[in-house]
Amino acid sequence: MAMQERVGTPADGFWGPQSIAACQRHLYGIIRQVKPWPRPDAASLEKFYGEPGDESQLVSLMVPTLGVEYDGKPVKSIRCHHRVAEPLQRVLTELAAGPHAGLLKLYAGCYNLRKKRGGNSYSLHAYGAAIDLDPESNAFHDSWPMQSTMPLEVMETFAKEGFKSGGSSWGFDSMHFEATN
User: What is the C-alpha separation between 177 and 164, in angstroms, rounded?
Assistant: First the structure.
């Protein structure tokens, strides 16, 4: 109910189509203030990011002081597209300083040259323009917020830098945040 109030819909305790739409409006309202990213179609992505898998577009985002871990081991740097590096650094720094810092210990990857699950087009990970956090509690097929646990505040932190959340955008894959419009 608190989340419903936060996104501006009647707090009835039922997370249905009205709540989902209100949440999307809420987060897209934050994103629209920034809107730096391309549309998610292949032509727009390649025009903005270059070819998927073009590692010359990647930089190492240094994160040794933020508490980022992968499989329980400290992460010193994250390979990401140079265009998302500064905004992603701001997101991770804000998360590290806040109540959801523990999610950074559950980092699950950024750059990964692969196609979308069940599809023929490339994932945003293939451009280094997506990041995954806490896949154990936010699995690909789990609906948000009924099964997944990604906090709305984390989605808002990413939205402030224009990143779209899988959980709020398509209702599942809450671990996933991508730099698309």
Answer: 6
What CATH number labels 2-178? 3.30.1380
> Residue 87 to residues 6, 157, 168: CA-CA distances in angstroms?
24, 11, 20
For the CA atoms of 156, 87, 63, 53, the dihedral, rounded to the nearest 10 degrees, stands at: 110
User: Which pTM does this prediction carry?
Assistant: 0.93
Low-confidence ranges of the chain (pLDDT < 50): none
- Cβ atoms of 120 and 166 within 8 Å: the answer is no
Question: 3-class DSSP state for residue 111?
Answer: coil
Q: Whole-angstrom Cα distance, residue 108 to residue 176?
A: 9
For 4, residues 6+ apart whose C-beta sits below 8 A from its C-beta are 10, 11, 12, 13, 15, 19, 22
* Domain extents in the chain: 2-178
